[in-house]
Write a structure and sequence with these properties.
Largest sheet: 6 strands, mixed
Strand content: 25-35%
Radius of gyration: 19 Å
Strand order of the largest sheet: 6-7-8-3-9-10
């Protein structure tokens, strides 16, 4: 279980994130929601140990993140930032291969199982046909899927993704979320993902963390989203829920 207690992140002499108590199921597909500036990226950066809070503790499996070695944490948590790093000169297969670094290191001996893990990750994300293509020549959707393939090759127990759908067209947004949902259901890997699209959350989430002005507005089962007033308060705009014409979940529209 991820646990945050009495956490504060302070920037420019003001608190931009303040959480008294928050538990996150590391086996769920948890969507982090909230308006721009609500603290979503700050939260997932804390969970991925990209920096430490000025106050409070973040623990995973009853250990603070600082108690994990860099290698042990990378074997447990795989993190994809909002802005993807530059990978000039690397093709898709080489980029995905980087996911094995926490297990083999720079000089570690590679095994057949490593190559199979890489091949499986490339196939699972549908980028096999691009394995010899330079990563920086891919379209936005193809590049995003390649980075997810690298996360899969890392074989961490938990995937954390910061707004992975923000630069994708609608088709690729749903393809990516289909993939993450399938991975969560079939492998038991936990997924924590920031989304801006409320309808993606309604369709795919099993758990929700909603932030407003740097604080937790609500969190828990996705059923919490079945409340128009709660959603309207979160986004400070009237939200109406209607039945999806073909699926057993609601669709949110702005009135």
């Amino acid at each position: 279980m991820y646990q945050l207690k009495d956490v504060k992140v302070i920037r420019e002499q003001r608190t931009i994130l303040g959480i008294e108590q928050l538990n996150i199921d590391p086996h769920a597909l948890t969507v982090v929601l909230g308006h721009n500036g609500s603290g979503k990226s700050t939260l997932v950066n804390l969970l991925a140990n990209q920096f430490q809070p000025e106050q409070g503790t973040v623990t995973l499996a009853d250990k603070t993140l600082q108690q994990y070695s860099a290698k042990a944490l990378a074997q447990t948590v795989a993190y994809l930032p909002q802005k993807l790093p530059e990978v000039a000169g690397l093709n898709v297969a080489e980029l995905v291969r980087l996911g094995r670094f926490p297990w083999r290191g720079t000089l570690g001996r590679w095994r057949k199982e490593d190559e199979q893990i890489i091949a499986d990750a490339v196939a699972e994300t549908g980028v096999t046909q691009f394995k010899d293509t330079l990563a920086d020549q891919l379209s936005g959707g193809e590049r995003q899927r390649t980075w997810v393939a690298m996360l899969l090759a890392q074989q961490a127990e938990l995937l954390i993704l910061d707004e992975p759908t923000s630069a994708l067209d609608i088709q690729h947004q749903y393809q990516l979320m289909d993939l993450l949902s399938r991975l969560n259901k079939t492998t038991g890997k936990g997924v924590i993902v920031i989304l801006h699209d409320l309808n993606l959350a309604l369709r795919y989430a099993t758990q929700i963390v909603a932030l407003k002005a740097g604080k937790v507005a609500f969190h828990g089962d996705v059923s919490l989203l079945q409340d128009e007033q709660r959603l309207s308060d979160l986004y400070a705009t009237p939200v109406t829920l209607i039945d999806h014409p073909h699926r057993p979940h609601k669709v949110a529209i702005v009135c």
